[in-house]
Amino acid sequence: MANLEGSACAQAFPFLDLQAQYRTIKPEIDAAIGRVMESQHFILGTEVESLEREIANYCGSRFAVACASGSDALLLALMALEVGPGDEVVTTPFTFVATAGAVVRLGARPVFIDIDASTYNIDASKLQSAITSKTRAIIPVHLYGMAADMAAILEIASRNSVPVVEDAAQAIGATYAGRPVGGIGLCGCFSFFPSKNLGGAGDGGMLSTNDEKLADRLRVLHLHGGRTKYEYELIGMNSRLDALQATILRVKLRHLDSWAAGRKHKAERYAELLYDHRLTDIVRLPQVAAKCTHVYHQYVIRAPHRDELRAFLRDHGIPSEIYYPMPLHLQRAFHFLGYKLGDLPQSEAASREVLALPIFPEMTDDQQKLVADAIAAFYRDWDRHR
Ligand SMILES: *Cc1c(COP(=O)(O)O)cnc(C)c1O
């Protein structure tokens, strides 16, 4: 491993290089920020309205409502559906905490169903048996940038008259059967957290829907529950997108498809490199499910001896991440739900084996080769010392 040690440590690079992205669009971003500063109009306004229209178009929805974060988008969607105490919402435990956190914050109960081992998204064959007379919504998460099995989910949802809220925080631009995510269920929730595929310079979120009544309700709910100043018809919240964020996101949205193409190219190259190292019967590569396009928010492999591999990569200057090291049903915050180890075995196994490799459009061939070479070196070594 002499060559690896020599080069990799010196060439450490970030897991996600947002500075590299900024360098490619700096004049556009700086000009857009300058325009908002000149206007001194910071809350809602034309930048936010334009972004709402552009995101609605982008995901094939009639309406979009901007808000302060992806977490708030989920919360607002459930508030608009009047989810509350005594209600149940079916979702996945293998996701970011906000998906199920929104349910609990409203006093309702998340009902977790296990994931499919190859897509990491909810296993639709487990959905029907989780639905009860208390079920008020189903929240599939399009994890890592690829849609859940929406045909099966929508079929079961409509059979039971339960609305589907898509958690599309990681998957803007991904499609299912040719339709963009976020525009498939009753509504879609997006996050503009800086590390997301469409990331702002801070927090931000968006809801998309084709349902005019729902869009109207969301508009009221995110502005304190009032339609006009100082007249309130609902208990709402203050969850708005800043004009500065909107103007930055509008610039970035114009680049999103080419960035997604860049990510896809990196994913294909990882597959080639790992295949050439004969690693594909040791680690499992991401699978693209039928009817899906993948936007590779994360490139996640499934790796034996994952924690040792991650430590080895770190020692060689190569960053990696784990999404997610503990499924939600085993987290202390959700302990009161009564789940225990063994209840959702696919999610638990995934949490022990998944490893996200660095992937971003500006990543160089050399950086990708370093990652693949280091993974190969780890498994060669592991075999020798076992
Ligand atoms: C990022 C994320 C969220 C929350 O978005 P924020 O903008 O960070 O509040 C929700 N769900 C999933 C799956 C996410 O990845």
**CATH topology label of the largest domain:** Aspartate Aminotransferase, domain 2
Strand content: 5-15%
H and E order: HHHEHEHEEHEEEEEHEEHHEHHEH
What is the fourth-level CATH superfamily of the largest domain?
Type I PLP-dependent aspartate aminotransferase-like (Major domain)
Mean pLDDT: 95
Ligand kinds: pyridoxal-5'-phosphate
Number of strands: 13
| Biggest beta-sheet profile | 4 strands, mixed
Class from helix and strand fractions? alpha/beta
- How many domain regions? 2
CATH-level-2 architecture of the largest domain: 3-Layer(aba) Sandwich
Backbone CA Rg: 21 Å
Structure description:
With 386 residues, this protein is of the alpha/beta class. It has helices at 2-10, 18-39, 46-58, 70-80, 98-105, 150-159, 212-221, 243-253, 256-276, 306-315, 345-353, 365-385, and strands at residues 63-67, 88-91, 109-112, 135-139, 165-167, 175-176, 179-180, 187-191, 205-209, 226-228, 231-232, 299-302, 354-357. It folds into 2 domains: 22-253, 3-Layer(aba) Sandwich (Aspartate Aminotransferase, domain 2), CATH 3.40.640; 256-385, Aspartate Aminotransferase, domain 1 (Alpha-Beta Complex), CATH 3.90.1150.10. The chain has 12 helices and 13 strands. It has a 4-stranded mixed sheet, sandwiched between helices. The protein is globular, with a radius of gyration of 21 Å. The site of pyridoxal-5'-phosphate (PLP) has 15 residues, from α4 and α5.
Keywords:
single chain; 386 residues; alpha/beta; Aspartate Aminotransferase, domain 2; Aspartate Aminotransferase, domain 1; 2 domains; four-stranded mixed beta sheet; three-stranded parallel beta sheet; 12 helices; 13 strands; disordered N terminus; binds pyridoxal-5'-phosphate
